[in-house]
Specification:
The complex is a heterotrimer of chains A (353), B (310) and C (280).
Chain A lengths: L3 E10 L2 E11 L4 E5 L6 H9 L6 E6 L2 E2 L10 E4 L11 H11 L4 H14 L15 H15 L3 E5 L7 H18 L2 E6 L2 H7 L2 E6 L2 E6 L1 H6 L4 H6 L6 E8 L2 E4 L4 E2 L12 E4 L4 E4 L6 E10 L3 E8 L3 E8 L9 E6 L5 E3 L5 E2 L2
Parallel strand pairs in A: 3-8, 3-9, 6-7, 7-8
Antiparallel strand pairs in A: 1-2, 1-4, 4-5, 9-10, 11-12, 11-14, 12-13, 14-20, 15-19, 16-17, 16-19, 17-18, 20-21
Helix pairs in contact in A: 2-3, 2-4, 3-4
Chain B lengths: L17 H35 L18 H7 L2 H32 L6 H8 L1 H4 L2 H12 L6 H8 L17 H24 L3 H9 L4 H30 L2 H6 L11 H10 L4 H29 L3
Chain C lengths: L8 H29 L21 H9 L2 H32 L5 H13 L6 H11 L5 H25 L4 H9 L3 H12 L1 H17 L2 H6 L8 H11 L4 H36 L1
The chains are: A alpha+beta (353), B mainly alpha (310), C mainly alpha (280).
């Protein structure tokens, strides 16, 4: 298995530097997810690990051995591509066994490994088919089967679920999670979907514009985001960000409301307050911190999303459990769970107490 | 700290790994045979060829060789045949491209629709491009021959000619022979390339136009033409240059005659080189031709930048 | 157009008429060629403008094949054309692959160079090439033709192959490289099998171009033994200036290889040009 270390990694295209000072250690058997918006560099980072892109500077080591110069075929890593990249002119069995075919493995070994992988993924009776005769989900499984047969030190996933419809995505996500539990292999997974990140990862790496914003477990990212970007990227619906001013030992919102929130020394420069919709409650007006009008109410059955307009502040999103009887146009009072709020400085960094 | 380190303290120096080097060199490994051949067989002779224009290189007078500066070009300027060839080149190119393009466009648009026997029709109408040019030249020469071919008789019957005579022997009409052959040969080129361009226009655009209530003419001018414009520009420019350079057809059909009425610049180059073995003068004509083509290409590029806003 | 709009019968008839004219125009010269080729000598002049011969014969073909150097010319052309097609396609496939897959410094320059070669009149270099070929001692050899023709065709063949490669997703090679191939192995085992139509189209295109080339062959080849078909036919024509039947028969035989090739590959040409265009 593999302990992967990235140290001071930088990437440049010609004279344009797109990533630098990337430091990351991935433990053996860990499921690590690289997540971020389009263009943040997550795929580039994955491809550098795979060897499909050269590393401009820095050290990339696996189990202590420097691998910058090692070509992809010798890195003992398997990759599942977003478009699956199945060989169109080969049937499923040959696709999955191709890596063994290249290494001239004996036929019995190859067919038994392929059979095993096919059984694990539920592809048993499809091995003679060509990729074009398969559905999207089946092709995905073949792509995974191809990786499994290789029995590599690390699995690399490049947005493998992006091309599937919503229901299939959920199903395949569980498959991948089960796979990790069974194989206990190192898995590096790239996605732009934070739900996939939160459900699959042991640790998440949040990237933006070529920089690592934060590395942590899902819960760490949720409870203690390092900055505004992470706070708004992780968690759905998005965290509310409200402008504040320090006032009389507490803080006040833009509409004048004072909040009894003790600021520690490090928080004196706070300029914004973040609070997740699930940490707001619709209450009676006299128990509320702020009040306004419900503009749009979304009834999801399991939750209710209330988009409220608060004079002086703007749009505030509140999430209540179950069915909350409200209509568009109703007057609402909103209470903040002050323990669950976050303070952000002018540079976007979260200021801890 | 030295000046280099102040930027990012503690940054490790950039390594020069072999993997990176291999990555940079890889494309050139694939390209080397092509580059080598083209350089050796085309570019080097090109430079040599241009230099011949400034020398007296005549295989029939091997002892009179040497640098003569612009002497060949001076001779060119006063050469009546040169100017005649220049005019002929112009008419030859214009006549050929005009008919080829519009007939080719029409064919491409027809082929872009559905009809019975499309596969066969498509294969058949593209056939002229596969016929070797020397053969089509011979065939059309025979077709225009009043003794053996039908065309003079049919044209006379239709009233276009007063009587069936040899068109290729009449200095005023001779150019039409090669032009017809060239049109026959060139329609498939435009049909294929314009068909490919037509087929790459997304169908949804036509459906959207139909829903918006566009007439067929509006659809053609506002959707089809703009999409075709880049392909039209490239193919017309390329084909014009090829036609201007195209000596085979005329050489075989009329040999440049009668009385140099079908002599174009390229056939003049060839006969000077092949028959008179005067490489120096031939190269001078060639340089003149090249110069004209470069001017033409430059004008087109300027026009394109002004007209095409894409 | 959508299925909702029904074409008027007039438009449909017009369309078939137009198509008919195009097909007739395309086939007419070839038909005439074939017609005279099978007309016996005695009737050629009397039936000069008739559409169908009253009697037909294959004796012209017989004479041409057996009593002239025709077969030798044919053999030489086949050798040169196949050689050129094979070598050009191999080199162009490599170059087209490089253009399709790699972004590298100097790419623009090389593409520009290739474009330039398409623009200047080839006749410009006919004199220097004659001198160079003579200096190397390769005059009157078919090898010199193959080398020269290959160089002439590489730019367009590269452009064709690049179009075809553009239609194949890049991540197929990447998947193969992850599976254990070097890039070249991936090209051989995965990509090339998928570009067979492209290879066929390029082979056919170059074959046709080499088969028809006249002027350089005329310049570089003088001896009867190594004449290619175009040159041979031309000398043939000037020698037999009245034997029309035989000349036409030779012409028909000249047509066969290139037309056959072309009929098979023209579909791939359109396909390849289209898919390359779509990928941009």
């Amino acid at each position: 298995m593999a302990r992967i270390e990235l140290s001071n990694i930088a990437k440049a295209y010609g004279s344009v530097e797109v990533m630098r000072d990337i430091d990351l250690t991935i433990e053996d058997g860990e499921f690590i997810v690289l997540v971020g918006p389009s263009g943040c560099g997550k795929s580039t980072l994955l491809r550098m690990i795979a060897g499909l892109e050269p590393i401009s500077a820095g050290d990339f080591t696996v189990d202590g051995r420097r691998m910058n110069d090692v070509p992809p075929r010798d890195r003992d890593m398997a990759m599942v591509f977003q478009s699956y990249a199945l060989y169109p002119h080969m049937d499923v069995a040959r696709n999955m066994g191709f890596s063994l075919e290249i290494r001239k493995s004996p036929n019995e070994e190859r067919s038994s490994k392929v059979r095993e992988a096919a059984k694990t993924l539920g592809l048993g009776n499809l091995t003679a088919r060509l990729p074009k005769q398969l559905s999207g989900g089946q092709r995905q499984r073949v792509a995974m089967g191809r990786a499994i047969v290789r029995d590599p030190s690390a699995f690399l996933f490049d947005e493998p679920l992006s091309n599937l419809d919503a229901a299939l995505r959920v199903e395949m996500r569980l498959e991948i999670a089960r796979l990790h539990q069974r194989l206990k292999a190192t898995m590096i997974y790239v996605t732009h979907d934070q739900v996939e990140a939160l459900t699959l990862a042991d640790r998440i790496v949040v990237l933006n514009a070529g920089d690592i914003q934060q590395v942590g477990t899902p819960l760490e990212l949720y409870d203690r985001p390092a900055n505004k970007f992470v706070a708004q990227f992780i968690g759905s619906p998005t965290m509310n960000i409200l402008g504040i001013e320090p006032r009389d030992g507490g803080i006040s919102l833009k509409n004048g409301t004072k909040l009894q929130l003790g600021l520690s020394g490090g928080q004196s420069a706070a300029s914004e307050l973040g609070v997740r919709p699930e940490h707001l409650n619709i209450v009676a007006p006299d128990a509320a911190h702020i009040s306004g009008t419900a503009e749009l109410v979304e009834h999801l059955g399991s939750d209710t999303n209330i988009h409220a307009s608060v004079p002086g502040i703007g749009q505030v999103l509140v999430r209540e459990h179950g069915h909350f009887p409200l209509k568009s146009g109703d007057k609402v009072g909103i209470a903040l769970d002050l323990d669950k709020t976050h303070l952000f400085g002018p540079d976007g960094r979260r200021l801890a107490a | 700290m030295t000046a280099i380190d102040t930027a990012v303290p503690g940054r490790k120096p950039r390594a020069r790994p072999t993997f990176y080097f291999r990555y940079m060199v890889e494309p050139y490994l694939y390209l080397t045979p092509a580059i080598l051949l083209i350089a050796l067989v085309m570019l080097v002779p090109l430079v040599i060829g241009v230099s011949y224009a400034f020398q007296a290189v005549n295989l029939l007078r091997p002892f009179q060789s040497g640098w003569v500066g612009f002497a060949n070009f001076e001779a060119l300027w006063t050469d009546r045949k040169f100017w005649l060839a220049l005019t002929n080149t112009f008419w030859w190119t214009l006549g050929s491209i005009f008919f080829q393009f519009f007939l080719g466009l029409g064919l491409a648009m027809l082929l872009n629709t559905q009809f019975h026997g499309k596969r066969i029709v498509q294969a058949l109408v593209f056939l002229p491009w596969a016929v070797p040019t020397f053969l089509s030249a011979l065939t059309w020469a025979w077709l225009f021959n009043p003794t053996i071919g039908p065309l003079p008789h049919w044209l006379a019957a239709l009233g276009i000619l007063s009587e069936p005579f040899n068109i290729l022997g009449d200095p005023d009409l001779a150019m039409w022979g090669p032009i017809t052959a060239n049109v026959w040969f060139g329609i498939p080129f435009f049909a294929i390339t314009l068909l490919a361009a037509l087929q790459s226009i997304p169908h949804e655009l036509y459906e959207a136009a139909e829903i918006d209530g566009a007439t067929p003419w509006q659809t053609f001018t506002k959707i089809t033409l703009p999409f075709l414009a880049p392909m039209i520009a490239i193919t017309v420019m390329l084909r014009t240059i090829w036609i201007a350079n195209f000596a085979d057809l005329i050489f075989v059909m009329t040999g440049g005659g009668p009385a140099n009425s079908t002599q174009i610049l390229s056939t003049y180059i060839f006969t000077t080189a092949f028959r008179k073995l005067d490489f120096g003068y031939a190269s001078a004509i060639a340089v003149a031709l090249l110069g004209l083509l470069l001017i033409y290409a430059a004008i087109l590029l300027v026009l394109r930048r002004k007209l095409v806003k894409i | 157009m959508s299925a909702l709009r029904k074409s008027s019968p007039l438009a449909v008839t017009g369309k078939y008429l137009a198509l008919g004219f195009y097909v007739a125009f395309a086939l007419f010269p070839l038909y005439w060629l074939a017609k005279i080729a099978v007309t016996p000598d005695k009737l050629i002049f009397t039936e000069g403008t008739a559409l169908f011969p009253s009697r037909f014969t294959f004796e012209n073909f017989g004479t041409v094949l057996l009593a002239t150097d025709f077969l030798s010319y044919f053999k030489n052309s086949v050798f040169v054309s196949i050689g050129t097609a094979a070598i050009t396609t191999a080199i162009a496939a490599a170059a087209g692959y490089a253009f399709s897959r790699f972004a590298f410094r100097g790419k623009r320059l090389i593409v520009a160079l290739m474009l330039i070669t398409q623009m200047f009149p080839l006749l410009m270099i006919i004199a220097p090439i004659y001198k160079i070929v003579a200096a190397v001692g390769l005059l009157n050899s078919l090898t010199s033709l193959i080398i020269v023709y290959t160089a002439f065709n590489i730019p367009f063949a590269t452009f064709l192959m690049q179009s075809f490669f553009d239609g194949i997703p890049k991540d197929l090679e990447e998947a193969a490289m992850m599976d254990g191939c070097t890039r070249f192995e991936a090209l051989r085992k995965i990509i090339l099998p998928l570009t067979l139509p492209g290879l066929g189209a390029t082979l056919g295109f170059v074959f046709t171009a080499a088969w028809s080339e006249l002027l350089f062959a005329l310049m570089l080849i003088n001896s009867n033994d190594t004449m290619t078909f175009p040159v041979g036919l031309l000398t043939f024509v000037s020698k037999f200036s009245v034997d029309w039947g035989q000349m036409m028969a030779a012409g028909v035989l000249a047509l066969v290889p290139s037309c056959l090739f072309f009929i098979f590959i023209q579909r791939y040409l359109v396909q390849g040009l289209t898919s390359g265009a779509v990928k941009g």
